[in-house]
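Design job #97: recover the sequence.
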């Protein structure tokens, strides 16, 4: 693996000394950028955009041309795995992702098998290779996947953002069936992330978007155990360079100590968790990523600078912090406010790294 011109993001995840706090933002290639909307229109649909390595490369690079970000993230979707399993992923306008064939019957579940990434998801690994080539070792590239529990939620409910009654009913009433789904998705996530690493990803992130909907006992049983299995099964080094692993459980601030035991190098935080408290609880074991409320980007540069200052001060001196939002950037965000955010982090953070 070639030496990166800017590896501050990777060093921060590993809690190594850095000259400033690095920043990237979730969904940094997205609908708030007019150039993204133009490329998406050219592709015909969101899924067509994801499945075209050249266009996926183009949109991955678009925010890097505008903003001095410290990492690129693969343009894809967390639902590529269940789509490859044949559940029929589609995106309804204004309604988010849905599946034509959600898992409702025992026979369906028993027939599930793990994916072969370089076969069924070759368009993703091709995109990783294409993006790495286009980046020309300027910045690290983040690969990612949904967590097994989060994927299971979409696969059973058939859509996201629900009350998860179908998921929880199966988990509590038929844990054998639910664990079968988790077993297959865990094996798929491991293979998928390792394929992204082989293709050139410099770090990987696991999005446990719906983990926070569980009780503490159920979280350990149905999410944490699988996250631990995944972290222990990922390729640790490529050519002597460590590949950092980030775990982000939205709504999981109460389980930071447990999450720090998964084998992750860093934990993503949503905006509901105080970063100073998080650092005092687990900051000697893992790096932290986050955690500004994305809604702040709807305000103005003065408010953004103030909020950036408070988060940086909350984390305090030393390394181990990657600045990010607590979730994805809103499509209604003015691009000039993202510029103000990136500049504020780079301007204000060096004082914490002397």
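Job complete. Output follows.
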């Amino acid at each position: 693996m070639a030496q990166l011109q800017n590896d501050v993001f990777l060093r921060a995840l590993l809690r190594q000394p850095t000259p400033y706090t690095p920043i990237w933002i979730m969904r940094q290639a997205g609908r708030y950028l007019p150039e993204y909307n133009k490329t998406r229109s050219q592709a015909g649909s969101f899924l067509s955009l994801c499945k075209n390595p050249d266009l996926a490369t183009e949109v991955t690079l678009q925010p890097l041309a505008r903003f001095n970000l410290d990492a690129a993230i693969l343009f894809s979707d967390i639902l590529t795995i269940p789509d490859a399993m044949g559940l029929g992923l589609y995106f309804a306008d204004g309604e988010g992702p849905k599946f034509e064939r959600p898992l409702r019957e025992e026979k369906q579940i028993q027939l599930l098998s793990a994916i072969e990434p370089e076969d069924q998801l070759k368009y993703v690994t091709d995109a990783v290779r294409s993006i790495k080539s286009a980046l020309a070792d300027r910045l690290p590239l983040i690969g990612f996947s949904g967590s097994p529990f989060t994927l299971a939620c979409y696969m059973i409910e058939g859509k996201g953002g629900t009350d998860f009654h179908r998921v929880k009913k199966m988990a509590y009433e038929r844990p054998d069936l639910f664990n079968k789904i988790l077993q297959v998705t865990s094996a798929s996530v491991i293979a998928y992330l390792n394929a992204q690493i082989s293709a050139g990803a410099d770090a990987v992130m696991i999005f446990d978007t719906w983990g926070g909907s569980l009780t503490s006992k159920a979280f350990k049983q149905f999410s944490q155990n699988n996250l631990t299995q995944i972290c222990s099964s990922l390729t640790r080094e490529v050519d002597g360079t460590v590949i950092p692993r980030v775990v982000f459980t939205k709504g999981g601030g109460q389980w930071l100590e447990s999450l720090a035991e998964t084998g992750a190098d860093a934990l993503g935080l949503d905006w509901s968790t105080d970063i100073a408290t998080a650092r005092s609880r687990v900051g000697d074991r893992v790096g932290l990523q986050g955690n500004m409320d994305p809604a702040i980007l709807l305000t103005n540069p003065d408010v953004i600078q103030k909020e950036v200052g408070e988060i940086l001060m909350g984390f305090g001196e030393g390394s181990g912090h990657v600045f990010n939002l607590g979730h994805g950037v809103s499509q209604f965000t003015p691009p000039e406010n993202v510029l103000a955010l990136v500049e504020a982090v780079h301007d204000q953070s060096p004082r914490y790294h002397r």
